[in-house]
Amino acid sequence: PGGTYAQFSHSGLQKTLPFSLDYIYHTWLVKTRNKLRFPLEIKTFLGSSKKSVNKKKNWTIQLPIDRISL
Question: Which helix (H) or strand (E) holds 20?
């Protein structure tokens, strides 16, 4: 869907991805006063498609937002 998206990078083990998501939802959104436009998370894995739980990987996370102006 169109609109404004906030984009974040996560570099690390897949099992640590929830920590980045927690920061985005509970710290970044609150501090910036942005609002989720609707509940959608786009996570894109960047790099090799080899499956390995214990390998550091790079992810892009995108969330649709509405910017709140003060």
Answer: helix 17-23
